[in-house]
Amino acid sequence: MYMRKSKLYFVILIMMSTALMSQSYDIVIKGGHLIDPANEIDQVMDIAVKGGKIAAIKNNIPATQAKKVVDASGMIVSPGLIDMHSHNFHGTVPNRYLSNSFTALAPDGFTFRSGVTTIVDVGGAGWKNFELFKSQVIDQSKTRVLSFLNIIGVGMSGGAWEQNIDDMNPKMTALVARQNKDHVVGIKLAHFMGFDWTPTDIVTEAGRLASIPVMIDFGGSNPELPLDKLLLEKLRPGDIFTHTYAHVNGRTPIVAENGKVRDYIFEAQKRGIVFDVGHGGGSFLFEQAIPAIKQGLKPNAISTDLHTGSMNGGMKNINNVMSKFLNIGLSIQEIIAATTSNPAKYLQRKDIGHLSLGAIADVAVLKIRKGDFGFIDTRGKRMKGNQKIECELTLRDGNVVYDLNGLASNDWKIK
Q: Against a cut of 0.85, is the pTM above it?
């Protein structure tokens, strides 16, 4: 009897061991519509994750091969979203606007819940305080945080700080960028007021020295600096023009008074200038965006310009911004490209923005809700829509970091 029990126990152990060995993946996301523009995938497929990496993409991966199964039927599965324009140098120094200040936001509370796994702080830190930004924000965040250094050495401190041409040092900015190339992906110029090309020339020189793009928040001059000269002469292909659909004092809007997009805007986009949304609290108007898109000027990158002044206004989060473009007429494929593969290309980061085998398993599972919705621009004007994008699940390095409805959780049962 003892021998029979021992043999039975041995058989059970073998069966259990075989079952565990067959679970070769940590997570399998099944039945979702996979949109991976970098790899030209746009169909229903299963995706498997193991050891923080993409391990398999197939038409059918058996659920028995996974320790955890996520049913993504009826949902979009995409690479983790990249928000290419945000403000995250959160700190406690008063009167420093978006540099080590109360107005900037700590990343993790505002990224994963929207499917964002990579966020780019644009200009919060300059070369003089980048190390503080790195230790205080980059090193403390589960979100991947990248940086556009401000051409102002002390960063985006607001007011007179950002008018100081003497604090714009292209050599030191480029030096710090090269020393921190894992984190610094570009250089930012913003908020300069005055009829003077000097800041633009300095920031593009820093970009050239560091071999990285620049992002420019243009305007503030009276009379206005000519926008065509900026886009066709001053900026290089790959440089980024942000707040594309804004109409603010001191900057020529892309849509003229006759309702037509200025011809040189299309020429600039063909030339390789990157048009970024940068919605923000004052830089997105339907009166600019809708006619521009209908005439063919679609954004290269969709971003938020996230900070305390925008998150509770018309912007809200990147899903809300994406939803605006979905209702205006962009396809979901175009929107996913503008929040994944496109920004990865502009940031010169080959490790993110795609779901290639062996790639970092940063994944967003999104749902397109149908209903009666309203979307607000930065002047409080409403556009009605019948589609809204919502994040259901986010994986960062293969780990579940956000799960709205428990897709990756086990059901609770009465014991």
A: yes
